[in-house]
Write a structure and sequence with these properties.
Layout: H1 23-36, E1 45-46, H2 48-55, H3 59-71, E2 75-78, E3 82-85, H4 90-114, H5 117-135, H6 139-156, H7 160-167, H8 170-184, H9 187-203, H10 206-226
Antiparallel strand pairs: 1-3, 2-3
Length: 231
């Protein structure tokens, strides 16, 4: 997470600490959040030079971050023409969720089985931080915590193939949810599902963790289908 990690207001809950990111990681996280939260709108044309000046980061880390974002379907790199932020696409979201259903279930179940004692404490802390983010109605903090949950669950699952595959899909889902969430006011419900999955991993409950993955995908599929044109 970035320096803007949710700061808990209750005693006994410590902020989550991440190692200092590389310049590429910093560029990626900042750009990913700007795209996911529509600060850089779908269809926008951007350039390495403009982003470098805006973020005060060199063009090489920016270029590497954009290449990763292209693999995650958030931008399209057009040689000699620049970089275009992809549109929010309901059919793409449904395809992403079809793949995520299988991978998320595997990852969360495996994380519940294989997480270390330290990792289990981290999932408990993540759940508390997400609760606080919802109480504060802080959607950006919620999205950062969602992203960290995905990363930590993938790491705890001890399956780098699944982790690498699913990493390219989560940002698309987060942007789609952010694009539509104001219509539904469903952040508390979405957070509750995440918190349940986090606590299942912390408790080592493989079946509950797998069910948590299913419930999260079910909710996202329902949201996506509600955005389909009505015939």
């Amino acid at each position: 997470m970035s320096d803007s990690t949710v700061q808990p207001s209750e005693p006994g809950v410590q902020p989550l600490i991440q190692p200092k990111p590389t310049l590429m990681e910093d560029a990626y996280r900042r750009l990913e959040e700007m795209i996911v939260t529509l600060e850089i709108a779908p269809g926008s044309v951007v350039s390495e030079a403009i982003l470098s000046r805006s973020l005060n980061i060199g063009t090489t880390p920016i270029r590497e971050a954009l290449q990763r974002l292209a693999r995650e379907h958030l931008v399209q790199i057009l040689p000699r023409r620049g970089v275009i932020v992809t549109e929010v696409d309901v059919q793409q979201q449904l395809q992403v969720l079809e793949v995520r259903r299988e991978l998320d279930r595997l990852i969360l179940r495996s994380a519940a089985l294989r997480a270390s004692a330290v990792e289990r404490k981290t999932f408990t802390s993540l759940a508390e931080h997400m609760r606080l983010a919802v109480e504060a109605d802080d959607v950006r903090a919620f999205l950062r915590l969602d992203g960290e949950f995905n990363e930590r669950a993938a790491a705890a699952a001890r399956n780098p193939i699944a982790a690498e595959t699913v990493a390219a899909l989560h940002a698309v889902s987060r942007r789609f949810w952010f694009f539509h969430h104001r219509d539904l006011s469903d952040m508390p419900q979405t957070a509750d599902l995440h918190i349940g999955a986090m606590r299942a991993i912390a408790a080592g409950d493989e079946q509950a963790a797998a069910r948590g993955a299913e419930h999260l995908i079910d909710q996202l599929v329902a949201l996506a289908k509600s955005r389909l044109p009505q015939i």
